[in-house]
């Protein structure tokens, strides 16, 4: 419990987590408001309210990476490891605190985006949370943010430099996963297993049919042959593997 308290204090005594949380909420809910305001001619589906969840996800992953890299930057990681020589326990405590915070932000993003859609959409008749799919679209954002934070913590611990960790996260998610699809013959098959592409199916995949909706209203296409929950399990598994590898590396190398 002491380590958890220490990591909580270290996280919240810097400004970057506060700015990241505000930016994640503002971007996702703000753009969701624009989408809801301009949604015409058909009932707005629940899944449409969370189209923008990835904006907040990337910001929260940057926040998680900063939670590790700033300690290396300012040398406080040495004091942390002197207080806890096993090195694993403070890293796990940091993961618990950051992952819990990321999940709370994801919950606020999901329900905030849904709420603003329900408030601003011309036709909100289909925005009630009545099915398991509806709840997955909205509440599932919390799980994706939490798993994304674990992945970012692993990357941050491996790279140790803020610029490098943030670049890897953003370039991989925003550029590499899109570009890989253009590789002749095998690009589509590789893209089906890219973690960020796969996990989008958990949030956006298999929406309920809506009576009176226009064709194609279900949302952006998703990739992969896994089910929505299988897609999340795959993403969480990748995040956990990266994080475990980072613990092994942190344990073995000099601080």
From TrEMBL:
Organism lineage string: Bacteria, Bacillati, Actinomycetota, Actinomycetes, Pseudonocardiales
Sorted UniProt keywords: Membrane, Transmembrane, Transmembrane helix
Domain of life: Bacteria
Membrane-spanning parts: 18-35, 55-74, 95-117, 137-159, 166-187, 232-250
Record's protein name: ABC-2 type transport system permease protein
């Amino acid at each position: 419990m002491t380590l958890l308290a220490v990591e909580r204090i270290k996280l919240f005594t810097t400004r970057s987590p506060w700015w990241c949380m505000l930016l994640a909420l503002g971007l996702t809910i703000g753009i969701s408001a624009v989408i809801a305001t301009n949604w015409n001619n058909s009932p707005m589906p629940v899944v449409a309210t969370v189209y923008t969840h990835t904006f907040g996800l990337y910001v929260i992953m940057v926040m998680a990476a900063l939670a590790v890299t700033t300690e290396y930057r300012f040398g406080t990681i040495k004091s942390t490891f002197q207080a806890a020589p096993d090195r694993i326990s403070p890293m796990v405590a940091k993961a618990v605190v950051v992952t819990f915070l990321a999940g709370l932000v994801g919950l606020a993003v999901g329900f905030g985006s849904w709420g603003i859609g329900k408030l601003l959409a011309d036709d909100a008749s289909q925005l009630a949370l009545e099915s398991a799919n509806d709840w997955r679209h909205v509440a599932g954002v919390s799980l994706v943010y939490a798993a994304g934070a674990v992945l970012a913590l692993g990357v941050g611990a491996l790279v140790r430099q803020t610029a490098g960790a943030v670049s890897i996260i953003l370039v991989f998610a925003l550029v590499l996963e899109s570009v890989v699809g253009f590789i002749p013959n095998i690009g589509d098959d590789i893209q089906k297993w890219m973690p960020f592409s796969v996990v989008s199916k958990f949030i956006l995949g298999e929406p309920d049919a809506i009576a009176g909706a226009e064709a194609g209203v279900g949302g952006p296409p998703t990739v992969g042959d896994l089910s929505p929950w299988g897609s999340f399990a795959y993403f969480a598994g990748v995040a956990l593997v990266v994080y475990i590898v980072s613990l092994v590396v942190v344990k073995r190398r000099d601080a």
